[in-house]
Amino acid sequence: MASSSAAPAGSADSTATIRTTKRPKYSKFTQQELPACKPILTPRAVISAFLLVTVVFVPIGVVSLMASRKVVEIVYRYESECIPGDVQDKVAYIQSSANKTCQLKLPVHKHMKSPIYVYYQLDNFYQNHRRYVKSRSDEQLRDPKKESSTSTCKPEDTVDGKPIVPCGLIAWSLFNDTYSFSRNNENITVNKKGISWKSDREHKFGKDVFPKNFQNSSIIGGAHLIESIPLSDQEDLIVWMRTAALPTFRKLYGKIEVDLNEGDSIDVTLENNYNTYSFNGKKKLVLSTTSWLGGKNDFLGIAYLTVGGLCFFLALAFTIVYFVKPRQLGDPSYLSWNRNPGG
């Protein structure tokens, strides 16, 4: 009887041991025994790799740099010029109801083929500030039934107990300088259709969501919105609401769809309304053509040329070393314990 009752007890102990083990199930993956490629970095292989990178990167860098240099840009900083000389307090002036119309002349030094993109550039404006970025309601922008969803929009969430549409600091600070252009006393039309992302117009801003109580508080932050136009058609707002990652950024204002010839003088009538003076910001008007690579940006081409040149230098250095002072691959005499046996 004793022997028969001992067997189940031993079996129970064995089962308990199996259940409590933490050893993982054996596999080649968990034990890092899968087949792997371990290339041997011979001098020829390393030099060939550097030369390959050189051959690929240098032509790309040259083509990118040439494409960037073909872009024609006119950049004009105007926030200081558009303030009367007798004004001492710029912030008080920009917040007043005084006439802020400013006349500028932009000379065209090189032929600009249409379409010509009109941008406004702001410097020292931190759209990436955490509180600023979070001060919006995406639900409210999409759905008219969510117009009261303003909990994330403080301090621009309500006015007199009524929800603001669109709410939040981003919409409240909408850029409101305006530009109109003429050449030889003939107006140049600026097309403001299609300046925003199609995905934003169709999915992020509702076609049946209309502005309400916007800029009705005591402090006006920026531009007003037309209450009869849905948010999906207010493209200046859509462009502004896509916040920039850096404190210096450009945003698309419109497109000029006629060529500008070399020697032309463009007359600009500018409404200098936006307050950048309280934080020492800068405002610039930019007219730019584009290439197949986009706007003017020399960085990409210079980066490719730099990497390609560095790889060529390394390939040349390794080649010289390889021929001047060669050594046998896998020579054990170079091991530290063989080179210094007494150490």
What does this entry look like structurally?
This protein is an alpha+beta fold and 343 residues long. It has two domains: 42-71 and 295-343; 72-289. Helix content is 32%, strand content 17%. Strand 4 and strand 5 form a beta hairpin. Helix 2 (43-69) runs antiparallel to helix 9 (299-324). The N and C termini lie far apart (71 Å). The relative contact order is 0.21. Mean pLDDT is 90; it is low at 1-7.
What would a concise description of this structure say?
This is ALA-interacting subunit. This protein is α+β, with helices and mostly antiparallel strands and about 350 residues long.
Task: Give the overall shape.
Answer: extended
Q: Given the structure, what is the number of helices? A: 10
Question: Biggest sheet, open or closed, and with what strands and sense?
Answer: 5 strands, antiparallel
Side-by-side strand order of the widest sheet? 1-11-3-9-8
Give average pLDDT, whole number: 90
Number of domains: 2
Percent in helix: 25-40%
How many strand segments? 11
Order of helices and strands: HHEHEEHHEEHEEEHHEEEHH
Give short descriptive properties of this protein:
alpha+beta, extended, four-stranded antiparallel sheet, disordered N terminus
Task: Give the SSE layout.
Blueprint: H1 2-20, H2 43-69, E1 73-77, H3 90-95, E2 101-107, E3 116-123, H4 130-134, H5 138-142, E4 158-159, E5 162-163, H6 169-172, E6 178-183, E7 186-188, E8 190-191, H7 198-204, H8 235-241, E9 249-256, E10 265-271, E11 282-288, H9 299-324, H10 336-339
Antiparallel strand pairs: 1-11, 2-10, 3-9, 3-11, 4-5, 6-7, 6-10, 8-9
